[in-house]
Amino acid sequence: MIVSRRWLADYVPLPESTAELTRRLTLAGLNLEEFHDVTEGLSQPDIAVDLEVTSNRPDCLGHLGVAREVSVLFEQPLTIPAAAVAESGDPAATAISVSIACPDLCPEYHARVIRGVRIKPSPPWLQDRLRAVGINCVNNIVDVTNYVMLECGQPLHAFDYDRLQGRQIIVRRATGSEKIRAIDQRDYQLTDQMCVIADAERPVAVAGVMGGLDTEISPGTVNVLIEAAAFSSMSVRATARSLRLHSPSSYRFERRVDRSRLDWASRRCCELILQTAGGTLLQGSVVAGTTDDGQRPPVTLRFARVGRLLGIEIPKSDCVRILQQLGLHLLSSDETQAVFQPPSWRADLTRECDLIEEIARIHGYEHIPTDAPLPVVAATKTRRERVLETVRSQLVAAGISEALTLSFVSEAQRTLFQPTGPRNPVAVSHSSRSHENQLRQSLIPSLLQCRRQNERHGTLNAELFEIARVYLSAGQKEPEAQAEPLSIGIVTGRSFAQLLGIVENLVQALAPQALLTASPADRPEFLAGRGAELHAGGILLGWIGELSRPLLDTSELQDGATVAELRIPVLETLFQPARSFTPLPRFPAISRDLNFVLPEAVSWTQLSTTVKDSAGPLLHEVSFNSQYRGKQIAADHKSYVVTCRFLAPDRTLTAEEVDAAVQGIIAACQSQLAAALRA
Questions:
Q1: Residue 531 neighbours by CB distance under 10 Å
Q2: Band of the pLDDT at 433, cuts 50, 70, 90?
Q3: From the centroid of its chain, how far is CA 68?
Q4: C-alpha to C-alpha distance for 134 and 534, rounded to whole angstroms
Q5: N or C: which end of the chain has fewer CB within 10 A?
């Protein structure tokens, strides 16, 4: 935002030093880019000050907004033009009708009509103001609309009234077949997502962006229609980017305008047109849509909170004075707090911390000592933070490195691994994403690509994990936790059993009481018999498996890979933060290996459950050792080697006690699972 010093002085007394002015503005958040003298083309020399205005301060995209800041910082009176206009003749409603067909894109529209204007160059004072801030002068009508926009931040537009067909203004969506030639003399193809200002026959302006050539102000213009409106910031932004047509108007609409000031801006524009171009202003304005009274929700300020956040004490009276000077209305106050209503132009003031920030910047950040003690309040980690911390520590301890990859993948990558089944993709059509334009539905393809890149650079067998969201929903009405679940993806060169052991340790660290079970998963991505669904506590946790050769070839990987994908919400549900101390055993354990020949349909889960149920109280743990299929085993059978570990807390077990427990296990497996003990 370029500000003219002479123009700014019309509203508020300024310090003699421009350097001091810009220093205070910078400390208050309006950072100085540069300032320089301007003399060329001006009747009086001026100083142009270029300020950086953040997106939350659209009120400072006009000289009046900057003047408000100066008024508060230097405690000087502020003068705002009254915008008094003399109306005569017929009511404006007899000359023009206004309707809004898309209130979501244009909630409010004001129109005024001026008859009998004389188009000519603007007076010197007006030309000086515009040229000082880098705006070219066109004619007195167009210059006034630019002047008012740069004065208050509200864009306006002037139409040649006599070129409007049917004496109508219709705010609507464009049709897909419509085009418009803008005042830059270029043709633009419109879409049905764009808002346009139309007359009875065709579009005459791209709403909030640029006017049309057919109705622009020309030397022959006699009657004008003045537009002051509010347009959807998202709609203006999308239209400007789609058409690659940006303007000072679109810049301001994208950051939202103060709807409660639409009438003032309209009257101010007409006031200056009558001064510079003459004419007769018809009575009243034609308003369509819903008006905004500018009432903002009240915000409560606790005085004690000011000191806690800033580290210094600011008197209560100063806090109230600063906020009132900024335009906030004091609704009520007592010794502990005050309730304020923010002004219409400060939509960014919605929370207590926003008010404290305003107090700090006006009081002066430079007055806050750098060594001021700030109270430190211990904050407990959330349940999710503790889960993620444990997950990372477990996987890193297992020798697996964390990776960060992009959420966008290609169509081929997205369909490479789909554990939840085929789903419609969430895709973008922007030109910057012509290839990898779909949000991933699994972390595995991204990690496989990362593993491939490591192979190409000489790092073989890269073992990686990633914690990120996947995107399963495409317009489905699902909760975020289901549509965009946080997941863990793991890719290693280890065997199925080794990676399963890592997952078991992970679940054990998070939820010691939760039983992790694996059931066969016959999926094309996995080798036959080397894929499984994982359940923890009876809830589907994820998938694990060794990748098939065709999938490895598609991924251009040299070595084999075993992958797992787990759901963080399930681990959160099962997480047991409390831990009890268990002393180390005082007496030795005794281990026995049992080699069972089982029917192919019997799973490890069934076998381990049977062993635990039949072993008695001396069984400390049971673990999978190995499996075998071969000539010595029937075709429909397999061999599982089970390691049973027996332990007593109060004594050393005898061989007879262990033998009795083992015999109970063998008998139960024979009767319940049709198992046979292999010699």
A1: 24
A2: low
A3: 31
A4: 66
A5: C
Q: Are 137 and 120 in contact (CB under 8 A)?
A: no
Half-sphere exposure of 569 toward its Cβ, with a 13 Å CA cutoff? 12
**For the residues 95-118, what does the mean pLDDT come to?**
96
State the fold for domain 299-367.
Answer: Phenylalanyl-tRNA Synthetase; Chain B, domain 1 (3.30.56)
Amino acid 525: pLDDT: 85
Phi and psi at 521, nearest 5°, equal -125, 105
| pLDDT tens, residue by residue, 232-276 | 999 999 999 999 999 999 999 999 999 999 999 999 999 999 999
Residue pair 196/127 in contact (Cβ under 8 Å)? The answer is no
- Triad 464, 469, 475: Cα angle to 5°: 145
Tell me what pLDDT residue 482 has: 65
Answer CATH for 87-289 from 3.50.40.10, 3.20.20.140, 1.10.620.20, 3.40.50.450: 3.50.40.10
CA 38 vs CA 2, 19, 21, 44, 359: distances in Å: 12, 16, 17, 9, 35
Average the pLDDT over each of 49-63, 367-381, 408-422 and give the range with the smallest value.
Answer: 367-381
**CA-CA distance, 372 to 368, in Å (whole number)?**
7
Give residue 97's Cα distance to chain centre. Answer: 40
Q: Tell which residue, 2, 67, 68, has the closest CA to residue 33.
A: 2
Give residue 437's pLDDT: 78
CATH number of 383-420+434-574: 3.30.930.10
Cβ partners under 8 Å of residue 126, min gap 6: 137, 140, 143, 144, 147, 272, 276
Q: Mind listing the pLDDT tens digit for each residue in 469-525?
A: 988 864 444 454 467 889 999 999 999 989 999 999 999 999 888 888 888 888 888
Query: What are the sequence ranges of the domains in the chain?
Result: 2-73, 87-289, 299-367, 383-420+434-574, 590-677
Residue 345 Cα to chain centre, angstroms? 24
Which letter does DSSP use for residue 436 in this model? S
Name which of 158, 134, 408 is nearest 277 in CA terms.
158
In angstroms, the Cα distances linking 631 to 330, 490, 527, 639 are 90, 35, 21, 12
Q: Could you name the CATH architecture of 590-677? A: 2-Layer Sandwich (3.30)
Contact (CB, 8 A) for 567 and 482? no
Domains 383-420+434-574 and 590-677 share a fold: no
Backbone angles phi, psi at 339, to 5 degrees: -110, 125
> Encoding tokens for residue 391?
């997950």
How many angstroms separate the CA atoms of 148 and 284, rounded? 19
Q: 140-152 and 124-132 are packed helices; what angle lies between their axes, rounded to 10 degrees?
A: 50
Pairing of strands 97-100, 224-230: unpaired
SS3 track for 150-161: HHHCCCEEEEEH
Looking at the structure, give the CATH architecture of the domain made up of residues 2-73: 2-Layer Sandwich (3.30)
**Among the listed residues 272, 344, 457, the one whose alpha carbon sits nearest the alpha carbon of residue 59:** 344
Whether the model pTM is above 0.85: no
What the block records as the tokens of 390 is 């444990």
Average pLDDT over residues 142-153: 96
What distance in Å separates the CA atoms of residue 338 and residue 520, rounded to the nearest whole number? 64
Residues with Cβ within 8 Å of 11's Cβ and at least 6 positions away in sequence, in order, are: 63, 64, 67, 71, 78, 79, 80
* 1 vs 63: CA distance, rounded Å: 9
Handedness of CA 314, 320, 322, 323 (dihedral sign): positive
